[in-house]
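Consider the following assembly input.
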Amino acid sequence: MALEVNGKTYETDEEGFLLNLNEWNEDVAKALAQGENIDMTENHWEVINFLRDYYNEYQIAPAVRVLTKAIGKKLGPEKGNSKYLYDLFPFGPGKQACKIAGLPKPTGCI
Amino acid sequence: MAAADFEVPKLKGYIEIPSIRPGAMQGIKSFPANEKIQEGLGYPGKLVDGWEQKAVSKMGEMLRKYRSLQVFLDACVHCGACTDKCHYYLGTSDPKNMPVARQDLLRQVYRRYFTLPGKLFPKLVGARDLSKEVLDDWYSYYHQCSECRRCSVYCPYGIDTAEITMAAREIMDSVGLGQKYTNEILGKAQRIGNNLGMPGPALEDTLAGFEEDVEADTGVAVKFPIDVKGAEVLLVTPSADFFAEPHVESLIGYAKVFHAAGISWTLSSHASEAGNFGLFQGSYENMRKVAMRIRDAALELGAKRIVVGECGHAWRVAYSFWNTLTGVGAGADDKYAQMLQKQLDHSYPQPSHICEVSLDLVKRGAIVLDKEANDHRVVTFHDSCNVSRGSRMGNIPGGQFIIPRELIRSAVNRYHDMAPGTTHEATFCCGGGGGLLTDDLIEVRVKGASPRANALKDVVDNHGVNFLALICAICKSQFTKVLPYYGFDMSMVGGVHQLVSTAIRLGAKE
């Protein structure tokens, strides 16, 4: 599968996850978000940027619990809960937010 | 939760055998593995030229190696005892999901190439050439079997139907047709040490976070040690316990148990996975590679005991296969196996299941559980297929049924079993085992969970059950995802050690 943004083609896997992490940019993120029916707001970008930073450091997306705690610490306790994250990304912050952030889909017994 | 684009079975609170709907699940196909994934495991990247012949010769090789396979292919008399025993048949009505019919997809080909009547008069004996059509059926239906072996319990010949599914998958892998979900994960476990692909530093950071959480929650500095040399216990647990909800709650439970009992323990970044997808794939070599990491870690860290966390198929591999795979057990004969044998403390079962460790501590008074802390819960227990039918626990027959239930009853006041015929050795698979826990098989997973969901509905409606206790990471993820399709709340799903975690007394013993 592939995604076309501004005339450039980006390869994705069967579920629409970007294959090459380094090709990610904000326009690609917007296009991926559109495919998920998500309008990107400042709140969405905060989560996406956190995910990308975490991934750059640890080579894996954070556990939901790690994500909620980090968001709470950084952005205030009212945002540090899974309800806040599910409101932003209804299909799950792990899978849907990872996709928009250009990260591979977390898989395992999860 | 997404609205289902397929028909979700209606729950009745009891299990009904459906009329057949031929072809109902014909088109279902999980994503095949790409070249990179396949080649990483030493398989051809894509379907090889001349695959028909190569698949038949692989089958011949396996028949020579595994006499059991030949017996299972020869012995079936099509009596039909297994037809209504499979959760995928009960949930999908597709007759090819009757275990006898699913096995016959392989058996027909076996007859054609390996039996005299099949070679001479194929039509008379139901023998078939291996064609693309047959291969497509193999790929589809052998990924609608979770290798749970419920049908085997009812087979008068004792045919291990899971072994036939495993053989079919191994043959497909050998000609370049593998499943993405299983094989991608197996590659990660072999390269990085766990199914998630979580590197050591990420694991350390995650565990440090749990220490903060538990201390904030309880005021007690419960530790989550990793790579500690000289710790008594090496705990090997599914990596989902580090990552997913409600799995993390059980990990916290194990840590509290070791803390309260004063047992030194450690996790390992090298062997940060109990699960072993080599079993699902039917590959002895891949299963051994994953299992070896655990032996290496135990030797490196000098552990005296190996304890396995809440993971169904991990426990089957550990209890039933580690002995011959890695020499953790009496059959050890190579140098490192013997080193490990000498190192381990044989006054404990090796390996031990976390449930037998905790229950033993409760019985000896080394930890105290306050049942009242769980009084908001009415609990039932789902026996995991691989634990129930592929292993044992403790030193009494049926220990794998008795020990988890006794542990639960020591942690809660209100407990109700689900209907007989759906528990113990007759338990239904959660619907997500055996390499099926992937979004591309969601329809199979939801439908396959319907027998369990029916039994659950009965105890929810009639006994007020609000907590489904589990000892398997796959069961936890599967039920969290599929039970909402049946109107249950996902928060009712949790681990046995989540109950222990709630009830355990961490302060000074009174």
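Chain A has five helices and two strands. Ask yourself how this observation constrains the way the partners meet.
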